[in-house]
Each structure stands twice: as C-alpha cells, then as structure tokens.
Specification:
heterodimer; A: 308 residues; mainly alpha; MetI-like fold; 0% strand; B: 624 residues; alpha+beta; globular
C-alpha cells in the first residue's frame, strides 16, 4: 500500500467523522424544533412533574448547552438514558435492537449474495436458454417490487392462508419471512449484475486463451471467470447494506421484528430525544463505515482504479 | 476460492437449519393451540401446552414495569400478576368482581381525626415474602409509597397519592417553581414490621380501589436503588403470584408462578407469556393460527367478521372511559357582525356548541363507524362510575328522565335535530331553498393520525356539510397532536379519557383552569376574563355564592370544595353540579363510552378483567 492510498484512506476517515458530526448536529436541533416532547401523554402530568422530569434529565438548560453536554457524553460513548423507557440506557436499547437487526441483515445480505451469484452465473452460462429467460423474468419482477408489497404478500400467503410460518418476527423461525422479504430485491439485483458481468468476462481474450490451452470447464468458470466477474458485485455491497438498513425499517414493521428500525421509529413518535440521537448515530455510522470499506475494497480488488 | 466454497457450504447449512425450524413451528401452529413453540434467541424451548403456558398479547412493550413508573393498562396487568398490594381485584364465589384484601389481613375502616383527616391502620398477613426469599415488611410499603410520590421519581401516576396527607407539601413550589419542602414525606408510618398506619387528607370513597392500584404496590429499597432494576429478570424482585423469568425486549415477557407466594396453591396457571406487539393484524393472525390465546385489540375493519365468525371468542366489556370531541372555548364561531360581546357572546357560543352536538347521531357512530359495541353517550362522566347508592352516575346526570344531558336514543334523534336547527337559525342565516346555513365560519377538526379517528372525523364533517357548515379535517402525528391540543391551537379536536379509579372526580378535576389536561382552555386566554358563570354552594352548607363570575371563581372553587368535602352524598351532588357546569358550556361533545374488545380462546377458563381494563390470568386453566 503506497502513501497515496494511505492519504486517501485517512482523508476518507476524516470525512466520515465530519459526516457523522453533521448528522448529530442536524438531528439534535431538528428533534428539538419539532413540536411535542417526551413527557406528553393523553393524560398530561402536572407542570410541576414535567418541570421535575426536565430538571432530572438536564432539559431545563438552554438547548445549546444541552448540545455541548451531549457532544461531550458522546465522545465517552455515553448515549444517556431513555426518556420513555425509564430505567433503560439508550445503549442497552440499541444493543438489543441491533442484535436482532444485524442477524436479520447479515442473513439477508449473505443469502442475497449467494443466491444472486449462483443464479447469475447459471443464467450467464446458459445464456438465452429457457432457464436464463426464467431467471431474468423473475428477477425483473423482484427488482421492481417494493419490499412492503412483497412483505405483505408473503405474510398473507405463508402466515395467514397456509399458516405454516409465524407472522411475528420475534422467534427464530419468524425470521424466515422477513429475511426473504429483505433479501429478494438485492438477490435479484445481484443475479442481474453477475449475469452481465460474467457474460462480459466470458467474452474476454484470456478466457478464450484458457479454453484453447485445454483448461477444464469448471476451472475456467471458478478459477478465472467468477472471480473477475464479482468486482461489480463487490461495489454493490455498500448500496446493498444501505438498502437493507433502510428497508428493514419497513420489514421490521410488517413482521413485528424487534429490531433497531422499530426503536428508531418509536423514538421519534415518543420524542425520546436520546434514543432518537442514539439510533440515528448508529445507523449513520454504519452506512458511512460500510461505504468507506467498500471504496477501499474496491481499490484492493482492482488496483487499476485511481482513488484520486 | 476455497473460502468461497466454505462460505457457500456454511450458508447452505444455516439456511437448511432455518427450514427445519420452520417445520417444527408449522406442526405446532397447525395443531391449533395445542402446542406452543417458544424460541428465545438461540435457546429453543418447546413447551407442549398441556395447559401449562398461556400466551397472550395485550400491547407493545410497556415503557416500564416498575409499579411506580408504569402508566399503561397492559403494564398494570403484568404488575398485578407480579406484585401483591394491600388490596386486589378478585372474583368472589358468585363470580362478582370485588376489591379484596391481598397483602393486608383486612381492608379496615378509617378512623376520623379532629382535623378532618382520617387514619387507616393495616396489618400485613403472615408469611409474605419477596421472590428472593426476604420477608415483606410494612417498611417496604412506606418506602414504596414515598418513592412513588416523590419529586425525585416524578412518576406519571405519582398524583395517585394526592389523597394522602403530606402529598401537597411534597409538591409545593414557590413562585419560581422551586420545591419548598425538599424533606417532606407522606403521612404513612410503619410502627413495626407488620403494621402500616396511613393518614388521608380527607375521606376518600375510592381508597380501597387505590390500594389495588399498581402505584400502591410495595417495592424494596435495596432492589430499586438501581433505576434499571425493572428492566431485567435477574434484578427484578417482586412479591406477587408470579416472578419475572424472561424478557426479550419488544418480543416477549415471561412470568412464572412464584412458589413462595403466600397463596401459591390457588394460582392455577404455571406460566404466562406476554407477547409484545401493537400490530392488530399481527395479533389476529397469531390468534387465528392458535399461537396466542388472548389478544387485546383487533383490526377495526375485521370487527364485523369476528363477531360473526367467533361468537364464543369475541368479547366486549365495559371500560370506564369516554370518547368525545372538545371545542376550544376561545374559538370564535359567531357569524361576522353578530354584534355580541362578552358574557352574551359566551352564552351564545355555548348554545351553538350544544346545538351542534345534537346534530350528531351517536347510534350511527357506534353501529356503523366505531363498530365495537360502544355505548352512545350524552354525558361526560363515563358509564361504570357509580353513585354512592350503587346506581350509575351517568344515568342520574343531567337530572332528566333519560340518562345524560339530552336523549341519546335513536328515536329522539329527529327531534334533537329539529331543536338544534331552530337554535342555530337564531344566530346564522339559513337558506330554506338549499337547507344550508350560509354564514357559519369554517372550522377545522383536529385528530391524531389513525383510521378510526379519521372515520369519525369524516362522519362529523359530513353531517355538518349537510347543513352548510364547513368542518375541514386535519390530522397530526401523535406527539404533535398532543402538543397542539394542549396549547389550544385548534377549533375542534378528537379527545378521550379513561378513568384510573371509580370516582367522578377523575373526569371533573381535569377542567380546572390550571390542569394540564384542560384541552378546552377553560379559564385560559380570553376565557380567563369571561365572567359568565354562577355558583351557589349554600345548599351544600358552604358559604359561597357568586354570580357572573369567571371560571376560576366558580368551577375551580367547586372542584376544590368537592375535594375537601367529607360528606359523601353532598360530594356526589356537587360532582353532578360540576358536570352540569362543564356540559352547559357545550365544549365537551361526548360521543360514546369506551368498550374493551378482546378475543379469548374458548379453551381458556377462569379469566376475568376489571373495569380499568386490567386482565387477570392467574386463576386460568386451559381445557380441551
């Protein structure tokens, strides 16, 4: 790795930190501007109780002071207490939710990658045959169908009509439907990506050379073609993660999966400021870091790419 | 390359493991409730429901199951299974719901003191222990009550101790809002480990009911010293019929029978799983496929189907609460150039609001819009609240020969309509050819985003449009809505109130000028100076009589007299008077009294619920 690459990585890391800081700042002030507050409910508490709660959580101070205090706490990775789930720290809530979401996300991403690469390769190798046509039609359908429709369809079919899978994503078997819902779009996308990239690679001179030298068919595919045709797929990993993180907000809602997506939405509804901040920071950091890693990987896989 | 193959293999294995898992569940659920699979993370336990586990879903995760901090009905249900207070709701031999002693040997009568306060002395039963084996002492109650009422905790339901002597001192503030008595405590003592002596500021008819309320349950000082104690089974120590044995956040809370509980031999349900979801479609799916035996909400658009398809499993129970529409009292609704000002304008507005209320057909709303077996309402204090003689408060409200402030029966609707139109014609121009009012200012109906609230808003708007009155609909997200309504930034808004105890005051003290729930804005803004009200308390033996006075000089005084009144009959008469005052302003338009709809599997026996909506599963069995 040369010094130019190192400089690039360093620059990207600084930029990533700056991005997260901007996200923190904007979110902090925007949540305070929107009407409502964490201590409102259908049965209002007396002004004295509200005042006591605000004093307890430091919300009686000017907003800018609260912002400075928050930044200091964040530097120590202290996300503060949840305002609505009394007795729980934001970090606990996020850890619980993230564990579930990560399980969902990782399984979905991995299955999407495996299914996509396998189907894409098959389609490319059987180009214009009936199997290729079928794969292409199905993937086109899945790429164009939004996850909330797919989720509702799967829920109706497997959980209600056939009643063979649970409707709520709180159990392990309950994760099947949300994983499928979440994975279908990226799987279809990767299939198409792999297919076109593989076709591209198969037409390259070095493949023809290998064939001419009498290399076995499977070695050509797995040893030469597949590896090179995966580069575009690798670049899709960043956007895919972003899709899975944002897509899981909807999917977690449909299947009642107790993930971070639900915490995120509920915290906004409840004006649980520290939890809004915590979930936003975690999700933003996740996306920024994954994009960073993808960019760096890109360079590692294909040294011809100029990072400048 | 090898890595890739390994990855593919690993994934294939994990996918096939999932497939196996699904088959298990498929078998279980297809059996329609005979088996339940509980899979907690990686640790899978399959329990055959030979009646040993009851799976229910009331709502999403409660904000807290700390008895002092809880403010939800579903949280209260769980706490009622986990803790044992001095009193509890029980079914007697005849199946009637009563408040019975629980940790207390008996629910004693109070002894009046010379200063008007009243003292109760309770003795704890023998053999009470915490779930960790420590004995329950009177001191635990004293500690818990002071904690729940404290400024430090600032609990939503801390005001439930308002009736106890000393509460007012704790929350007394100076002009700058600082608390002036930081060392104040409630007047409750534990002279020994078995005796609790508590003094109330005034006699309270619903005192025993308060003792059965979760905020009054005991907690132990060393347990709750860490504020996170109530979020984890390992630190959760309770004294009731069950212990908290599992809590997958946002997923399921598991209660297991507490063998150390003093009445453990009477508890028939070994384990209760409270699934945590607020998605009614999801709940219904799980009820229909037999995974859950009770669900506390159903999708609104399914109500008619469920009534028809599950006649033995669909239940509607009364709930002490009123769904109503409130006006902002400061909203100007008089036609342009009416020339009315001050008291005259206020009285005219009250008459108009009351007339508009008569235009709405409550029977239609209940039967065709809300569809949940609700009861049409023509008064604010809800059905279920009783008079001292046991009769229903709402039936005697208004002093008419029908219940409430107008005849809400279907037969009376046409004549109500005619009366209303006559009144409105006095104030507004009416075009006889079109049957429309032509100069009614257009208004906006504010509701929180929800299909059922929207449907009611559309009905109200449709009725008014029929007579030429424009009522635009505006929905806001929940928290924004609460804020707007509280600040009076609306003309007409959707509203609802559920009582916490069987006493009309829980519906009436919210309308004093300084109340945080005074959404109508009585005595606030312009209304603060409106001297349009009269109050004569001399018939009740109180030397107070004012005419053409402000809301603060009348209603606020009345509520404060009610709160310090020691004669129960007089107190109830004054509470009827207070409701009269509120209803006369026309700002409260009651639509219906709430009901609680739930689905209960027919195999479950021994279930009951109380008027506050708490559900009791401890005496349940699953048969068949």
């Amino acid at each position: 790795m040369n010094s130019k690459t190192l400089m690039y990585i360093l620059k990207r890391i600084l930029l990533a930190i700056l991005t997260v800081w901007v996200v923190i700042t904007v979110t902090f002030f925007v949540t305070r501007i929107i009407p409502g507050g964490p201590f409102l409910s259908e049965k209002a508490v007396s002004p004295a109780v509200t005042a006591a709660l605000e004093a307890k959580y430091g919300m009686d101070k000017p907003v800018f002071d609260q912002y400075i205090t928050y930044l200091k706490d964040i530097l120590h990775l202290d996300f503060g207490p949840s305002l609505t789930q009394r007795g729980r720290d934001v970090s606990d809530v996020i850890t619980d939710g993230l564990a579930v979401s990560a399980k969902l996300g990782v399984i979905a991403a991995a299955s999407a990658a495996v299914v996509g690469i396998v189907l894409g390769s098959i389609a490319a190798l059987r180009r214009n045959k009936i199997i290729d046509k079928i794969i292409m039609v199905i993937t086109t359908a899945f790429v164009s169908m939004p996850s909330f429709i797919m989720g509702s369809l799967l829920l109706t079919l497997f959980a209600v009509k056939l009643a063979i899978l649970p409707a709520n994503g709180t159990t392990t078997s309950g994760l099947i439907l949300p994983v499928v819902t979440l994975a279908l779009y990226p799987a279809a996308y990767i299939t198409r990506l792999t297919r076109s990239s593989m076709l591209d690679v198969l037409g390259q001179d070095y493949i023809r050379t290998a064939r001419a030298k009498g290399v076995a068919g499977y070695r050509i595919i797995f040893g030469h073609a597949l590896k090179n045709s995966l580069i575009p797929v690798l670049t899709y990993l960043g956007p895919m993660l972003a899709y899975i993180v944002t897509g899981s907000l909807v999917v977690e809602k449909i299947f009642a999966v107790p993930g971070i997506g639900r915490d995120f939405v509920n915290s906004i509804t409840n004006r649980d400021y520290p939890l809004v901040m915590g979930t936003t920071i975690v999700l933003a950091t996740l996306i920024v870091v994954m994009n960073l890693i993808t960019d760096i990987l890109y360079k590692v896989v294909d040294p011809r790419i100029n990072l400048e | 390359m090898k890595k890739l193959v390994a990855l593919v293999l690993a994934l294939t294995m994990s996918v096939s493991m999932f497939a196996c898992g699904s088959k298990d569940t498929a078998g279980d659920t297809a059996d329609n409730g005979s088996n339940t699979t509980t899979e907690n993370g990686g640790d899978t336990t399959t329990t055959a429901t030979d009646g040993s586990v009851l799976s229910v879903c009331l709502a999403s995760e409660p904000d807290s199951i700390d008895p002092a901090l809880n403010s939800t009905v579903d949280g209260a249900t769980m706490i009622a299974h986990l803790f044992s207070g001095l009193a509890t709701w029980k079914q007697d031999e005849s199946g009637k719901l009563v408040i019975a002693p629980d940790a207390a040997e008996e629910l004693v009568e109070g002894v009046p003191n010379e200063d008007g306060t009243i003292t109760y002395t309770y003795t704890l039963r023998d053999g009470l222990t915490w779930s960790d084996g420590e004995p329950v002492t009177a001191g635990d109650f004293v500690f818990a009550w002071n904690r729940a009422a404290s400024v430090d905790l600032a609990a939503d339901y801390g005001y439930m101790f308002e009736v106890v002597d000393g509460y007012a001192d704790i929350w007394e503030t100076d002009a700058d809002g600082n608390f002036v008595n930081p060392d104040a405590t409630l007047n409750v003592q534990a002279p020994d480990d078995k005796t609790i002596v508590v003094t109330l500021a005034t006699p309270v008819s619903y005192w025993n009911e308060l003792l059965a309320f979760p905020t009054y349950y005991p907690v132990r000082e060393d347990v709750v010293s860490d504020e996170s104690w109530a979020t984890d089974p390992s630190t959760y120590v309770s004294n009731g019929a069950y212990t908290l044995t599992g809590w997958e956040h946002n997923s399921v809370i598991t209660l297991t029978k507490n063998e150390h509980y003093v009445d453990a031999d009477k508890i028939t349900m070994p384990q209760i799983d409270f699934y945590l979801s607020d998605d009614t479609n999801n709940m219904l799916t799980n009820f229909e496929n037999g995974s859950w035996q009770l669900i506390d909400s159903v999708p609104n658009n399914e109500i008619a189907n469920l009534q028809a398809n599950y006649p033995d499993e669909y239940f509607v129970e009364g709930q002490i609460g009123t769904y109503y529409v409130c006006w902002n009292i400061n909203e100007d609704i008089l036609p342009e150039g009416s020339g009315l000002t001050g008291v005259e304008a206020e009285n005219a507005k009250a008459e108009i609001r009351n007339a508009i209320s008569l235009l709405f057909d409550r029977n239609y709303i209940v039967e065709s819009v809300a569809q949940g077996g609700q009861v049409p309402a023509s008064s604010f204090v809800a059905m279920g609240i009783t008079n001292p003689d046991g009769s229903q408060f709402y039936e005697t409200a208004g002093g008419n020969d029908y219940p409430g402030y107008f005849d809400v029966s279907a037969e009376a609707y046409t004549s109500n309509w005619d009366t209303a139109m006559e009144t409105l014609k006095k104030y507004y121009d009416f075009d006889e050819s079109t049957g429309m009012f032509t100069n009614f200012p257009s208004m906006t109906y504010l509701y929180n985003t929800d299909d059922s609230h929207k449907a009611i808003g559309e009905y109200l708007s449709g009725v008014l449009a029929g007579v030429g009155i424009t009522l635009n609909l505006e929905n806001q997200e929940w928290n924004t809505f609460l804020n707007t309504r509280k600040d009076g930034g609306y003309s007409i808004a959707r509203n609802g109130w559920l009582a916490d105890y069987n006493d009309p005051i829980s519906f009436l003290d919210m309308w004093i000028s300084g109340s945080g729930n005074n959404d109508v804005q009585y005595g606030k803004g312009d209304h603060a100076a409106v001297a349009a009200y009269s109050l004569d308390l001399t018939p009740y033996g109180i030397d107070y009589k004012v005419e053409n006075a402000t809301w603060a000089e009348t209603y606020d005084v009345l509520i404060s007299e009610i709160k310090s009144c020691t004669d129960n009959d007089t107190r109830y008469e004054m509470m009827h008077l207070a409701e009269d005052m509120v209803m006369e302003t026309g700002c409260i338009v009651p639509l219906y009294f709430y009901t609680d709809i739930y689905m209960l599997d027919s195999s479950v026996k021994g279930f009951y619920s109380n008027p506050l909506g708490y559900k009791y599963f401890m005496y349940c069995t699953i048969e068949g």
